[in-house]
């Protein structure tokens, strides 16, 4: 044991050192060596170290030591986590220490029973583990406020996650409100990855002094990027999984990696991918669980426990598993497709291997060139510690609106200047002016949330304050969820969040869900339901919306552009993709096959004598009405440039311009009146200083702004919980609120979360000064078309309709039909299709000329039985006789076809007479006819 090892634990008292010996802590971990001395001295400290490296004990050992030395009467320490699941983990980890040290550790969150809450108020535990929202609630309770007055330490776990959200902005004010109660207390932040430690430290402490103790995460991470090579075995696997060989190769590689390790986490970027990939592993009967935020708490806990117990070899998960939930030891992490951000990769790969000095190992499995180059750039940046900044929400006005009533509810009548002082001590609000907060108070007064006496500048409660505070403990927007139903089968295929429905959904628009492409047929806001029909042949169809993507930062996209610029001259001098790949292998962690596969796209670009889009060259290409500006600037810059172009080109054309953006392309669907020269002209002539103003002007007509405005105004008490009303009155909403703090905040939020005006303006300046090249090309290029493959989920099987077909079969089997004998016309029976015999026969006259009719077609029965028929009855009778002829010839198969929706005797005959290999094809034809009817039924009368 070195002097440094000994020195860390000597800062702790004898009781805690005794607990360390009992627990088997012989030597401190690296973060403990670095951080325990300043923590034991009571200094505010931000600890940055890999997940599983002992950060929790690093923070809590000095806290426990202080609480043992000076036992609190109320709460001594708060441990705040962003997830309830982490509350459970923390309690399990800290309870042993509490028992040994005679300190009570307890948990409080939204699900804590009323009885337990009462006990905590009567007899506060020494350490309380809680969430940001529960702290908000506690600050308003009279007895709890008394207990909170004793707090001497606050630990914020996963502080980077909170710093970048409005939840964190709200917490920062909550900590200042706690300071008003308890006086100065020690603040401790814990995180696995932070790109801007000084800013996050200032967020943690309210700009006060903060010691930063950081372990180099990148140097302890071993990441490999791999694109699987398709083999003969993948053809066989593709047959079993009903998919293509390329997708089968992804599944095979992941399976091989899982088999060669003891316990593996497989991260994916979306819940849809988790479900799709999970279904493949289920088909292969592999012990791999699925874990994501849409699953119930019970389902998540079940797979966590199964993995920890060794019953599952791997967990397939989304960001739900990033934040340190304890699932036991992980020895490898697989990331399926690019993680999009360096911080995300480090968080995820950092879950693997945390025995002392052990390297965290991981594999990124990539699927196409963009994906591979992006993953390479991220892996290189992770190794060198080049992490993105957190992106703190500066001056969120709806958080101010949320906190003013909370303060008044907890304090009683409050001078506005005291509220302003508390709010502006919080780091994200340090620059918010008193006049702005005064305006917000006035808005809350008009909405009867608080009483604001302008003469005395005093805030007081109203009848609505208490209800507002407890309905708005969280800054997470309360959004509706729309069910998505296949219009033909009636089956639910998934859900869409309200943001998507309001911002995008219109009849006729196309989107991807469950690995399939769907066209919207109808939207029912009252029922919160979207009816869709599938795209039968997706070739040539361009999804209008693919999904909420994790934004790729400008620096990562720029490095992809740099890789291209290094490769281009090599290809121009005759090098092969394999040769360029070998050169790249010296700098990037990938095998030759992976690099060669990706470089093949670049080689085709050069071979086609088309310019290469790079970090300092944009390539504009056009085919028909589609214009693609290849730009390696990441999501936010490209979104900004894209909105600018679509707005200005739309003004020129007098009609709307379609926009689709990814980190490397801005795709515009323009009216035929827009020439390529118009695009070049707009780029050349737009003043970079006017970018923000032009985009804000364009936002006034955008549903996206109206949606955010509705959410923001809810926090101001101006709207009841919003339920899709933006679809009905966006213009009125925008007009009514334009000159209010609500409008200002909605615009700020759009710019903060989606756009990067500063960098976009710099790009425009660079193009106009000649520092950045802009070249145009007629026709599409390999790179320009490279983004399209992302529009369809790679894991979609070729016949991704097995569950839909089963639903259709089940529905038709249970549908009722009227069987009518058209020979004697007397016998009639109403029964379920599944009860119909293979060859129906009249029990009275033994005829097999039995018509199968809809269960509500009593008028057809009357028409068949009538002695004299009018023209309409004749048509009905003719259809019944044709149906009976089909049943006589084809038996139950005809009954099934006739029971389908919108399928009459003519279409039933077409379906029956088709030659086919299996029953599924028969039902697939029925489904096709049903969907055809669903799409055209509005024209039928």
TrEMBL record:
<comment type="similarity">
    <text>Belongs to the Lhr helicase family. Lhr-Core subfamily.</text>
</comment>
<dbReference type="InterPro" id="IPR002464">
    <property type="entry name" value="DNA/RNA_helicase_DEAH_CS"/>
</dbReference>
<dbReference type="GO" id="GO:0006281">
    <property type="term" value="P:DNA repair"/>
</dbReference>
<dbReference type="InterPro" id="IPR045628">
    <property type="entry name" value="Lhr_WH_dom"/>
</dbReference>
<dbReference type="GO" id="GO:0003677">
    <property type="term" value="F:DNA binding"/>
</dbReference>
<dbReference type="Pfam" id="PF19306">
    <property type="entry name" value="WHD_Lhr"/>
</dbReference>
<keyword id="KW-0238">DNA-binding</keyword>
<dbReference type="InterPro" id="IPR001650">
    <property type="entry name" value="Helicase_C-like"/>
</dbReference>
<keyword id="KW-0227">DNA damage</keyword>
<dbReference type="InterPro" id="IPR052511">
    <property type="entry name" value="ATP-dep_Helicase"/>
</dbReference>
<dbReference type="GO" id="GO:0005524">
    <property type="term" value="F:ATP binding"/>
</dbReference>
<feature type="domain" description="Helicase ATP-binding">
    <location>
        <begin position="36"/>
        <end position="212"/>
    </location>
</feature>
<keyword id="KW-0347">Helicase</keyword>
<keyword id="KW-0234">DNA repair</keyword>
<keyword id="KW-0067">ATP-binding</keyword>
<feature type="domain" description="Helicase C-terminal">
    <location>
        <begin position="252"/>
        <end position="398"/>
    </location>
</feature>
<dbReference type="Pfam" id="PF00270">
    <property type="entry name" value="DEAD"/>
</dbReference>
<dbReference type="InterPro" id="IPR014001">
    <property type="entry name" value="Helicase_ATP-bd"/>
</dbReference>
<dbReference type="InterPro" id="IPR011545">
    <property type="entry name" value="DEAD/DEAH_box_helicase_dom"/>
</dbReference>
<dbReference type="InterPro" id="IPR027417">
    <property type="entry name" value="P-loop_NTPase"/>
</dbReference>
<dbReference type="InterPro" id="IPR017170">
    <property type="entry name" value="Lhr-like"/>
</dbReference>
<dbReference type="GO" id="GO:0016887">
    <property type="term" value="F:ATP hydrolysis activity"/>
</dbReference>
<dbReference type="GO" id="GO:0140097">
    <property type="term" value="F:catalytic activity, acting on DNA"/>
</dbReference>
<dbReference type="GO" id="GO:0004386">
    <property type="term" value="F:helicase activity"/>
</dbReference>
<keyword id="KW-0547">Nucleotide-binding</keyword>
<dbReference type="InterPro" id="IPR013701">
    <property type="entry name" value="Lhr-like_DEAD/DEAH_assoc"/>
</dbReference>
<dbReference type="Pfam" id="PF00271">
    <property type="entry name" value="Helicase_C"/>
</dbReference>
<keyword id="KW-0413">Isomerase</keyword>
<protein>
    <submittedName>
        <fullName>Helicase</fullName>
    </submittedName>
</protein>
<keyword id="KW-0378">Hydrolase</keyword>
<dbReference type="Pfam" id="PF08494">
    <property type="entry name" value="DEAD_assoc"/>
</dbReference>
């Amino acid at each position: 044991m070195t002097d440094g090892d000994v020195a860390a634990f000597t800062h702790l008292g004898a009781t805690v050192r005794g607990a360390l010996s009992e627990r088997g802590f012989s030597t401190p971990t690296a973060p403990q060596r670095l951080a325990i001395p300043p923590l034991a001295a009571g200094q505010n400290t931000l600890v940055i170290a890999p997940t599983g490296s002992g950060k929790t004990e690093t923070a809590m050992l000095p806290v426990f030591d202080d609480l043992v030395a000076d036992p609190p009467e109320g709460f001594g320490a708060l441990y705040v986590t962003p997830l309830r699941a982490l509350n459970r983990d923390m309690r399990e980890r800290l309870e042993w220490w509490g028992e040994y040290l005679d300190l009570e550790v307890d948990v409080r969150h939204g699900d804590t029973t009323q009885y337990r809450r009462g006990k905590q108020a009567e007899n506060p535990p020494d350490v309380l583990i809680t969430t940001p929202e529960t702290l908000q609630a506690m600050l308003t309770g009279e007895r709890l406020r008394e207990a909170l007055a004793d707090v001497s330490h606050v630990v914020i776990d996963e502080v980077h996650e909170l710093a970048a959200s409005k939840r964190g902005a709200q917490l920062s004010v909550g900590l200042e409100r706690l300071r008003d109660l308890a006086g100065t207390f020690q603040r401790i932040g814990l995180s696995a990855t932070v790109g801007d430690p000084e800013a996050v430290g200032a967020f943690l402490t309210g700009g006060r002094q903060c010691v930063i103790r950081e372990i180099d995460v990148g140097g302890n991470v071993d990441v490999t990027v791999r694109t699987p090579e398709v083999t003969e075995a993948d053809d066989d696997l593709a047959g079993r999984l009903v998919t293509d060989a390329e997708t089968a190769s992804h599944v095979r590689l992941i399976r091989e990696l899982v088999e060669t390790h003891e316990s593996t986490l497989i991260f994916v970027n979306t819940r849809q991918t988790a479900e799709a990939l999970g279904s493949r592993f289920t088909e292969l009967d592999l012990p791999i669980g699925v874990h994501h935020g849409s699953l119930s708490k019970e389902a998540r806990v079940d797979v966590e426990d199964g993995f920890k117990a060794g019953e599952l070899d791997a967990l397939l998960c989304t960001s739900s598993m990033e934040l340190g939930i304890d699932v036991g030891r992980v020895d490898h992490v697989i990331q399926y497709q690019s993680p999009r951000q360096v911080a995300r990769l480090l968080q995820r790969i950092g879950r693997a291997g945390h025995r002392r000095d052990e390297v965290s190992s991981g594999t990124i499995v990539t699927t196409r060139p963009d994906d591979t180059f992006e993953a390479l750039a991220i892996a290189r940046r992770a190794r060198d510690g080049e992490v993105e900044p957190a992106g703190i929400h500066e001056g969120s006005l709806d958080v101010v609106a949320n906190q003013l009533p909370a303060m008044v509810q907890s304090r009683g009548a409050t001078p506005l200047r005291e509220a302003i002082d508390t709010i502006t001590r919080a780091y994200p609000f340090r620059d918010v002016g008193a006049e702005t907060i005064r305006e917000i108070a006035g808005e809350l007064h008009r909405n009867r949330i608080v009483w604001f006496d302008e003469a005395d500048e005093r805030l007081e409660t109203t009848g609505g304050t208490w209800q507002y505070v407890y309905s708005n403990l969280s800054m997470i927007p309360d959004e509706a969820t729309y069910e998505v139903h296949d219009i033909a089968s009636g089956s639910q295929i998934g859900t869409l969040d309200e943001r998507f429905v309001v911002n995008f959904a219109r009849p006729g628009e196309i989107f991807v869900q469950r690995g399939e492409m769907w066209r919207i047929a109808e939207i029912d806001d009252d029922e919160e339901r979207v009816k869709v029909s599938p795209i039968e042949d997706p070739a040539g169809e361009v999804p209008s919306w693919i999904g909420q993507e994790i934004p790729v930062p400008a620096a990562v996209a720029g490095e992809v552009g740099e890789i291209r610029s290094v490769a281009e001259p090599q290809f121009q001098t005759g090098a092969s993709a394999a040769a360029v790949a070998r050169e790249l292998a010296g700098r990037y962690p990938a095998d030759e096959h992976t690099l060669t596969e990706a470089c093949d796209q670049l080689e085709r670009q050069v071979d086609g004598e088309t310019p290469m889009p790079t970090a300092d060259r944009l390539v504009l290409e056009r085919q028909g009405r589609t214009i693609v500006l290849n730009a390696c600037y990441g999501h936010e810059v490209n979104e900004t440039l894209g909105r600018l172009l679509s707005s200005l080109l739309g003004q020129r054309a007098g009609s709307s311009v379609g926009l689709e953006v990814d980190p490397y392309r801005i795709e515009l669907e323009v009216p035929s009146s827009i020439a390529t020269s118009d695009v070049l002209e707009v780029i050349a002539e737009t003043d970079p200083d006017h970018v923000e103003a032009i985009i804000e002007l364009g936002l006034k007509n955008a549903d996206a702004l109206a949606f955010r405005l509705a959410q923001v105004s809810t926090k101001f008490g101006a709207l009841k919980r919003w339920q899709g009303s933006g679809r009905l009155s966006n213009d009125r909403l925008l007009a009514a609120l334009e000159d209010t703090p609500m409008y200002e905040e909605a615009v700020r939020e759009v710019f903060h979360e989606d756009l990067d005006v500063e960098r976009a303006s710099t790009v425009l300046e660079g193009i106009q000064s000649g520092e950045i090249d802009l070249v145009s090309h007629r026709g599409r290029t390999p790179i320009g078309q490279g983004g399209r493959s992302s529009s369809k989920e790679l894991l979609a099987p070729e016949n991704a309709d097995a569950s839909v077909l089963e639903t259709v079969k089940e529905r038709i089997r249970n549908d009722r039909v009227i069987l009518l004998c058209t020979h004697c016309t007397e016998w009639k029976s109403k029964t379920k299709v599944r009860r119909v015999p293979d060859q129906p026969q009249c029990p009275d006259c033994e005829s097999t000329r039995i018509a199968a009719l809809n269960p509500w077609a009593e008028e057809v029965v009357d028409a068949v039985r009538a002695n004299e028929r009018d023209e309409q009855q004749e048509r009905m009778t003719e259809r019944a006789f044709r149906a009976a002829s089909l049943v006589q010839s084809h038996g139950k198969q005809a009954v099934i076809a006739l029971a389908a929706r919108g399928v009459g005797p003519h279409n039933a005959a077409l379906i029956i007479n088709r030659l086919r290999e299996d029953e599924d094809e028969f039902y697939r034809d029925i489904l096709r006819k049903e969907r055809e009817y669903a799409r055209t039924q509005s024209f039928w009368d």
